[in-house]
Every structure is written in C-alpha cells, then in structure tokens.
Amino acid sequence: MRARDLAVEYETVGLDSDALDAARLMAEQRLPALLVVDERGAPKAILPASQMVKILVPAYVVEDPTLAAVVDERHADRLCEALAGRKVRDCLSKSTPRPAVAAPDDTALEVAAQMAQVRSPLVAVVEKNGASVRLLGVITASHLLERLLAAASC
Q1: Is 60 exceeded by the pLDDT of residue 77?
Q2: pTM of the model
Q3: Residues 144 and 120 sit within 8 Å (Cβ to Cβ)
Q4: Is the pLDDT of residue 57 over 60?
C-alpha cells in the first residue's frame, strides 16, 4: 500500500479561518484534528481537537483541575466564547510541530513511522512539483490502522 492509495479527502482550514467555525467542524464531523493549510494550500500545521478543548478551559482550571468543580454550569456553558473573534492561527500552540507529510509513493510502514514519531493523528499526503505543492489527501491513524489490520488478517 502506498500513501496515495491510503489518502482520503479531509477537511482543511486556513490559518485565518474562524476558530469557532473550525471547532464546530471538528465537533460535527467528530474529527480528531484539522489540517491547517497556508494560502497556497500546503500543510502548515495540525490542530488537534484536544488543543481546541484546552483553549476553552480557563488557564486557572488547567493549572489546578480541582477548581473545575467550583465553576457553575451557567459559566461552563459559555466556555466557547473563548473562541469568539479568534483565528485558527491564534489556536496553534507555540510549540506546534510542522505536520507530518508523506510523499505519494511512501509505503504504509513509512507513513506509520512518521505518524508514530510525531504522535500525530494524521499525515498529509503531498505531491511536490518544484515549488508547487498539491495536497492529495490525508491518512488518519484510524484509517491506517484499519488498512494494516485488514492486510495482516489479524
């Protein structure tokens, strides 16, 4: 199996996309992460759903989770307001690594190794032609696992 055969269409967002819209997209489609692309459509970052959840939780609660018990339900229901007016670029961690990118001819094992090395729920499959980049699709960890298990007949 080659990366081009494993790649599927996947939702992407731009750096300047609305953060609240991105969070809704993740929630509605139950995506583990979104692929963030630059203005040319090249992979720029992976925005995990866990990072979006972290933004919703007040910093003082992240530092001391026992404080979550004292936040009333009315206040908790308004957590999504933390995303209002923000862009996707504002939600990326300062330490966000570059996304894992596979070439179309990479093997499933090469893709799995990249995914494991960077602990990413997805890998972008990109075809490069000089300075131009074309996103062929994405390989998610669950899809890769499904294909590997099917091939091994476990």
Answers
A1: no
A2: 0.83
A3: no
A4: yes
Are 59 and 41 in contact by the 8 Å Cβ rule? The answer is no
In a 10 Å sphere around its CB, with 0-12 CB exposed, 13-18 middle and 19+ buried, how is residue 42 labelled? middle
Sequence-distant (≥ 6) Cβ neighbours of residue 134 within 8 angstroms: 41, 126, 127, 128
Distance CA 8, CA 73 (A): 39
Query: Counting Cβ atoms within 10 Å, is residue 32 exposed (0-12), middle (13-18) or buried (19+)?
Result: middle
CA dihedral 53, 101, 41, 32 (to 10 degrees): -20
Residue 47: band (very low, low, confident or very high) from pLDDT cuts 50, 70, 90: very high
Is the separation of the CB atoms in 67 and 60 below 8 Å? yes
Rounded to a whole number of angstroms, the CA Rg of the chain reads: 18
And the tokens for 153? 């007949």
